[in-house]
Design brief:
Blueprint: E1 2-4, E2 8-9, E3 13-16, E4 19-21, H1 23-34, E5 40-41, H2 47-56, E6 61-66, E7 75-77, E8 82-91, E9 107-111, H3 115-123, E10 128-132, H4 135-144, E11 149-153, H5 154-163, E12 169-186, H6 193-202, H7 205-215, H8 226-236, H9 240-283, H10 293-310, E13 314-323, H11 330-348, E14 354-357, E15 362-368, H12 372-388, E16 397-405, H13 412-429, E17 434-436
Parallel strand pairs: 1-5, 1-6, 9-10, 9-11, 16-17
Antiparallel strand pairs: 2-3, 3-4, 6-12, 7-12, 8-11, 8-12, 13-15, 13-16, 14-15
Helix pairs in contact: 1-6, 1-7, 11-12
Length: 438
């Protein structure tokens, strides 16, 4: 199984001298010892490149990442095997920040491709964001004054601060949500998930504790209270009474933390359920369950951006459903036909394709990394599926098609307009006609 990692995310995982090291590496060694899985590392320079390699098929698995709606479109996830809290880092003297709400107008650094970018864009769209290539780059930019605040993983941030003795930086708050880390497997290789999950479940608890101790050697640093706390600790060292007091306090704190963690977990489950419901309602068409116009336009803009950066192909399929009969049950019949068309369309296209109901009678299929020849094969397969399933059987129901490939310097509106013009040409020739846009 070929896999990619985040090469600059120590101590969670990193690439050192061509070798995969860190927490994920230790877990993969344990999984290999338990199961029959053999892992082969594919080296990359950045996390964004690792995501790109997986989507191109150069590797089939990412070793440590958090599940999200966007990633579920091209990945299947194993059971979680590690949790990583996220923290906000700023210059010493910055007041404590209560999560992202406390960032305010400060410029916030976020790593490209991390789940935090997707989370902040969705729930804190007003924040000022600067995208960085790695957490280490973001912390260096924080030192130089290019950023006001940086969000990063707790162990990574502490390791960097302690390794370089950076007294000018400090953790000033925690950032929701925690990263619940799993293996992400390409959907073409989901057969390996049962083996991964079985091996994860069999890793002994003492092995997990040993891994954590090995890679969590740094301590959290606080602004104003660190020095008095350290002096107080020194004053009481050597006193038996202090040890007894400390043990009791730690036991009390552990009990409180356990109770709070249980409350947080319950709230996270409730929030996750509500978030999934809200996301479905805001991105889906109420009649067919397909994506709606706004979501399609967002995904299309992402493909255009990818095309401009990497020159990867993308194609657009548009088809209209026209019901010409004039009777009282036209709306009921058309709704039923559109639901059936949506079901058939989802079974005919590929997993990577995005299908949306664009208007009341128009459907759009976005085909990422697909040239015009491949898109032509797909549109004819879609047409044949609709005919084979008996969807287009009524003489009053007509479906016409057009297809186009994204061209240089095109916006989505230009691309859509060119494809719709070809659709009008199909309408002149009648139902079942496919026109390739110029």
């Amino acid at each position: 199984m070929k896999y990619c990692i985040d090469p600059s995310w120590a101590p969670y995982e990193a690439l050192v001298g061509g070798e995969h090291v860190g927490i994920s590496a230790e877990y993969m060694k344990a999984i290999s010892a338990i199961s029959s899985i053999e892992f082969e590392l594919v080296e990359t320079e950045t996390w964004a490149q690792s995501l790109e390699f997986l989507q191109r098929g150069e590797c089939q698995m990412l070793s440590m990442l958090t599940e999200s709606e966007r990633r579920r479109q091209f990945l299947a996830f194993s059971d979680a095997y590690f949790e990583a809290p996220n923290v906000l880092v700023a210059a010493v003297g910055t007041p404590i920040l209560q999560g992202y709400d406390g960032v305010g107008s400060r410029l916030l650094g976020v790593v490209r491709g991390y789940r935090q970018m997707e989370y902040i864009t969705r729930y804190y769209p007003s924040l000022r964001i600067k995208v960085v290539e790695s957490e280490r780059d973001g912390l260096n930019m924080l030192l130089s004054g290019e950023l006001d605040v940086m969000v990063g993983s707790l162990l990574t941030v502490n390791t960097f601060i302690n390794m370089h003795n950076l007294d000018s930086l400090a953790i000033v708050g925690y950032a929701e949500p925690y990263d619940v880390l799993s293996f992400g497997v390409a959907k073409s290789h989901t057969h390996i998930l049962p083996l991964l999950n079985d091996a994860i479940a069999k890793i002994p608890e003492d092995k997990e504790v040993a891994i954590y101790k090995q890679w969590s050697s740094s301590k959290v640093r606080y602004n104003a209270t660190y020095m008095p706390y350290a002096l107080g600790m020194v004053c009481f060292v050597g006193s038996l009474c202090w040890f007894i007091w400390r043990a009791r306090v730690r036991q009390h704190i552990r009990r409180l933390l356990r109770e709070k963690n249980e409350e947080i977990q319950l709230l996270k489950v409730q929030l996750s359920d509500k978030s999934r419901t809200l996301e479905f309602l805001t991105t889906r068409d109420g009649l067919t369950g397909l994506y709606n116009r706004n979501h399609m336009m967002q995904r299309a803009e992402e493909e255009i951006s990818r095309f401009q950066r990497f020159h990867s192909s993308a194609s657009l399929i548009v088809f209209d459903v026209n019901f010409s009969a004039a009777s009282e049950d036209v709306e009921t019949t058309l709704d039923a036909s559109q639901k059936q068309i949506a079901t058939t369309c989802l079974s005919a296209v590929r997993e990577v394709d995005v299908v949306a109901r664009f208007t009341s009678e128009r459907f759009v299929v976005l085909c990422p990394q697909t040239d015009i020849e491949a898109a032509k094969i797909l549109v004819y397969r879609l047409r044949d599926s609709l005919m084979a399933q008996g969807v287009v059987k009524d003489q009053n129901l007509g479906v016409v098609y057009s297809v186009s490939e994204l061209q240089s310097a095109e916006t989505f509106l230009d691309w859509e307009d060119r494809t719709v013009k070809a659709l009008y040409q199909s309408k002149r020739y009648g139902s079942g006609t496919v026109t390739i846009a110029d």
